[in-house]
Amino acid sequence: MLTLRDVSVKYGDALAVDDVSLDLPAGDVLAVLGPSGCGKSTLLRAVAGLEPLTSGGSIELDGRDLAGVPTHRRGFALMFQDGQLFVHLTVARNVAYALRLRRTPAARVRGRVAELLELVGLQGYDDRHPGTLSGGERQRVALARALAVEPSLLLLDEPLSALDRSLREHLAGELREILVAARTTALLVTHDHEEAFALADRLAVMRAGRVVQSGGIDEVWRAP
Ligand code: ADP
Ligand code: ADP
């Protein structure tokens, strides 16, 4: 369970995130939905440990305060809009990247890469390079790479926004199934309410730094 209590982030005198409190139970997908500039990415970065909180706020994972825990020790995975694959590495090497950094034995890496590529529907893509993949395929590789280390929390910043509309609709359903199958706890930020409703169990609506509404996906008012 991820718990945000009175989380605020300032840039100079400007409050980009203003007193946000949220709970994200283990295994759930929470979407933070709001217009550009409302503070979504800043909130995500704060959870990742990339922005300091103002005093009084806290972020806890399973009851453990993350204050002072650096990004690389939080056990989280991040996935951004454009996937950001390593273009000079094959699909398999991209997926294996974090495992190899951790000096995981080669046999174990091979097994895990096969498992992950199957999970995202890309069996047999091991030796392809990112430049030869479609946008949707690249996003699925990015997702496999993010899931490789079984993150305690997956942070997604507009994961489908860079894709065209039909691909986005198609991949949203798949991504949801993958997240459920991997039993991943995920925090997603997006300006796209279709993306939020397609992927999330819970929704928090953000405006000008504040969460103005939150609850289960069926409880929160559907924006037209
Ligand atoms: P969103 O992700 O919802 O588009 P952001 O979190 O990127 O919003 O930005 C929230 C507010 O903080 C905006 O007013 C933005 O201009 C400001 N902001 C974001 N990053 C910085 C920064 N590094 N320095 C100063 N202001 C920033
Ligand atoms: P520094 O390395 O500047 O001394 P800290 O050790 O205070 O920073 O924090 C390490 C990381 O944890 C920083 O990236 C910071 O953004 C983040 N952080 C600081 N306070 C909190 C908090 N109360 N809850 C969650 N994260 C925090």
From TrEMBL:
Gene Ontology MF annotations: ABC-type ferric iron transporter activity; ABC-type quaternary ammonium compound transporting activity; ATP binding; ATP hydrolysis activity
Superkingdom of origin organism: Bacteria
Annotated ABC transporter domain residues: 2-224
GO cellular component labels: membrane
Coiled coil segments of this chain: none
EC number: 7.6.2.9
Keyword annotations from UniProtKB, A to Z: ATP-binding, Cell membrane, Ion transport, Iron, Iron transport, Membrane, Nucleotide-binding, Transport
Protein name: ABC-type quaternary amine transporter
Full-protein positions shown: 1 to 224 of 339
